[in-house]
Design goal:
Blueprint (H helix, E strand, L loop, with lengths): L2 E4 L4 E4 L13 E3 L21 E9 L8 E6 L5 E6 L2 E7 L5 E4 L8 E9 L25 E6 L2 E11 L6 E10 L5 E11 L9 E9 L3 E9 L16 E9 L2 E10 L4 E4 L2 E4 L2 E3 L1 E5 L13 H14 L4 E4 L6 H10 L2 E5 L9 H18 L5 E5 L9 H14 L4 E3 L14 E4 L13 E5 L13 H19 L6 E4 L5 E2 L10 E2 L12 H7 L10 E3 L16 E5 L3 E6 L2 E6 L14 E3 L15 E7 L2 E8 L7 E6 L3 E2 L6 E9 L11 E9 L1 E4 L4 E3 L3 E8 L4 E8 L6 E7 L1
Parallel strand pairs: 21-22, 21-28, 22-23, 23-24, 24-25, 26-27, 27-28, 39-46
Antiparallel strand pairs: 1-10, 2-3, 2-4, 4-9, 5-8, 5-10, 6-7, 6-9, 11-12, 12-15, 13-14, 13-16, 16-17, 18-19, 19-20, 29-30, 31-32, 32-35, 33-34, 33-36, 36-37, 38-40, 40-44, 41-43, 41-45, 42-44, 45-46
Helix pairs in contact: 1-2, 3-4, 5-6
Amino acid sequence: MRTILPFNDNWLYAPVQHDLRVPDSQFQAVTLPHTNVTLPYHNFDYTEYGFISTYRKRFNMPKEGKDRRVYIEFDAAMIACTVMLNGAKVGMNEGGYTPFRFDLTDHLKRGENVLQVELDSTERPDIPPNGYVVDYLMFGGIYRDVRLVVVDSTHVDTVFARPRDVLTAPKLSADIRLENVSRSDRAVSVRATLHEFRQRSNPQIAVQTTTALVPAQGALTATLHFDDLANIRLWTLDQPRLYSLDVEVYADDALIDTESTRFGFREASFKDDGFYLNGERIKLIGLNRHQTYPYIGAAAPARLQRKDADILKEELGVNIVRTSHYPQSPHFLDRCDEVGLLVLEEIPGWQTIGDADWKGISLRDVEAMITRDRNHPSIVLWGVRINESWDDEAFYTATNALAHKLDPTRQTGGIRNFLESQFLEDVFTYNDFSNTIVEPTHTPHLVTEHNGHMFPTKTFDNEERQVEHALRHLRVQDKQFGMANVTGAIGWCAFDYNTHRELGSGDRICYHGVMDIFRLPKFAAYVYESQIPAKVRPVLRAATFFTQGDRSEGGNDPLYVFSNCDALEVYVGDELHGKYTPARDLYPNIPNAPFVVTGLGLLAYWGHRYQELRLVGLLDGKPAAEQKISANELPCALTLTADDLELDADGSDMTRLVIKVTDRHGNRLPLAITAVMLEISGAGELVGENPFPLVGGQGAVYVRTADTPGTITVTARAPRLPSASVTITTS
């Protein structure tokens, strides 16, 4: 049977090019995922990670590998690598965003084996997305998971589960590609069993079998059909039901391989009048996501990847994310499946098309992305054009044809930034920087970027700019909700990110996010959060710090309150200032318009004692949400909170520690600039700057576990404030 062996631990690393003669003492011990250099969260250059490094791992031949094939699978490594086993080259890979694997079998020996990876993390112009300036950083390292896979010489290569007729009489076709690396034909029997995912105690839903003769040193695809499936529950945004197809391969009545594939039953279609999920028209409202993080670049373990999907779905309330501009972590996509977050996934690239060899790598990226990810029910659109590139009819005809061949169940899009672009795909995906929504020239029409670089905004910018940033997102989203021929709008972007000198602010950050680089909200995040249905949770967010001197000419007039409540009461001190309804006259289309509060100008309280602001959101006449902002905006508390209080003691698990300086009601104070000292004890390490320079009232570092169980305690201290601490358990 198939054996999968995690291969992330006990690696050695050197930030230089070494051959096998260099002793292990010249390396340092690391666990994957790994970044080739830990960096500050800003003020660094791409050349700091752009070098050749060496990874080494000593291991014994797995006992399961006797008389079987042993493969090594890399989920990704940035950006080109040569893999050696016991001094023999087993393979090379060019490209940093898609998986690759090599057969180790013929080079394995009894006893100890030495695997060595030479990794080139320079920005090579012959490998996408490079070739010219790129608006993001790639970072370096073996930054995703690695595993050994031990299989019979005849084994399952891929499984593609294709639900059909899900709205009438649900059916399933399963394409099972079998590979045979032996020198003789192999007769096999294939059995596939359908279960509801994580409901294995329930009876199986259906079973199908077939036989096949797999040619020697070749492959064959066997297709099984499941018809008349009863009681199938659809994958939806609110109830993302998942199923599992378990495949077993038998030869001479002996079980020789197994493979399990997770998927969902759903129908997704972009039409001229909108996007439809399971026959229901849904307006898409989303954000773009870069996979990079402060300090660790792209080398985020599963917990952090999954957390990003939770932030997008649960904190920001969007229903679609675009994986700009490359295929992203399987852990992130798995979580999108689980929480009901739609995905537009695209190939690596940014504005530049290279030569024929470069295009060949890009076509390989199309194949690798779709083959890896076509069972994810969350993915509804393949992006098969280099982001914002010029037209290339032959190239993009080829990418579209390949996408449709590999996955005839999904439509394609091609991200462009000019309306005159040749329309070769199924959906006209368009980066619209008009600060509104232009009238579509082709349909289906999906806005894949807006705002972003048009109005970069920092958490420590003045209040006027932060409010205007939010209103720009609001105006575009309100406009698209009123246009039947626009399927949706995906804002640029969810999180601030590191970039090159040519594109970002002076500290090499693009401050384009509705959240900062630490995944903490700016005012613009409230626009999206306020679209969460009130039945899910009431939302009430004031876009103000309620001071008299942070706007031109002073005061807080008008005050925007982003909420999903149906009425708002505003109190200044104990006095009711006014009762408001959503500003439907200004924003008639978006599901939840903001409240616009007037009369809080400078002169209204000139010469009077400044009083506390209290906002009460009402649903059906009853209080449902409340926000208080202290009249004394001086720092009151230093807070330190962990996203997770229980972690895995595997040497790579991480969680975010959020640091804030707040008023007495927990509101961040953007001008409370201070140095925060962090102390850690126990079975882990801090990842981040210490002391931490807190700017904008909020920031974050990370904790990484050791490989032994225990507890981790972190304490934060800042001048003139009580200390704060948090304790995490690892097991």
